[in-house]
Amino acid sequence: MPEAKFEPIVPKEALDYMKDKTFAFGFDYRDVWKEEHAVAFTVAKAMRADVLASIKTAVETAIAKGQSFEEFQQNLEPELVRLGWWGKQKMQDPLTGKLKEVTLGTPRRLKIIYETNLAQAYHCGEWQRFENVKKYFPALKYLTRNPLKARPAHRQWHNRVFAVDDPFWDEWMPLNGWNCHCRVIQVPREDIKQGKVKVEPTPSYEKTAWFNKRTGKTEIIPKGIDPGFNYNVGKARAKAITPTPNEQGSFKFAKDLKQPPMPEASKLPEGLVLPRSEE
């Protein structure tokens, strides 16, 4: 009997999220910030369109084909080496004008690019599904991959349940940091009705001030979330692709805009019978 072959199931929402992204060039990871990632693909110090396009294409392929990191690296590393985006090089920081020795492509960086981008794409797609079926799955449970090894700030939410519409998820929807492996699962309405699961009210949690040296601004972020991860990627993308009408309406026209005159109607010959259209 021939061996059965199964094609990977492509997570459409995750792939659409990645394909719809435009390019954003940033020298430092803090140059493209938080919700901007929902619509822009960026890799720190990938300041050329060909380099950024190669990385983005590799990420899309990894999602579409369900590639492991090893497959992703095997395909992308030679291309980045060919493009000259590998190892240490000197680059000028556009913000300061200073020439710095920086790290471009390395196996470690590729792993971060792979894990972070794929996880955010999957979480974005998940959130879209959460919103679509929250009538039947009105709550979400936070889970860490390994409670014994998870960061204390993440471990505190393990196995706790909050409503889909709870503002808690505006900041604590994974990813919640570099190398974060937290996730959420849906909770059926029937389990809540039968008392099998308790939905908690909006929790309070400690926050801290963090200064962004690239922007010169201080932000207040939840303690335990890495700076830049305290947002909900699914909500950010939905907001970005949903137009918000202004007070005058979504479209504005120039004042006193005159339309060209319509052409005069042409006369048909007398007795002409037009053919009957058939459906």
Task: Set down the secondary structure blueprint.
Elements: H1 12-19, E1 22-23, E2 40-41, H2 49-65, H3 69-82, E3 88-92, E4 99-103, H4 107-132, E5 139-143, H5 152-155, E6 161-163, H6 168-172, E7 183-187, H7 189-193, E8 207-212, E9 217-222, H8 233-241
Parallel strand pairs: 1-2
Antiparallel strand pairs: 3-4, 5-6, 5-7, 8-9
Helix pairs in contact: 1-2, 1-4, 2-3, 3-4, 4-8
Short description:
This protein is 32% helix and 14% strand.
Q: Can you describe this structure?
A:
This protein has 8 helices and 9 strands. The chain is α+β, with helices and mostly antiparallel strands and 279 residues long. Helix 2 runs antiparallel to helix 3, helix 3 packs across helix 4 and helix 4 crosses helix 8. The chain is globular. The C terminus is likely disordered.
Quickly list its features.
single chain, 279 residues, alpha+beta, three-stranded antiparallel β-sheet, two-stranded parallel ribbon, 8 helices, 14% strand, globular, disordered C terminus
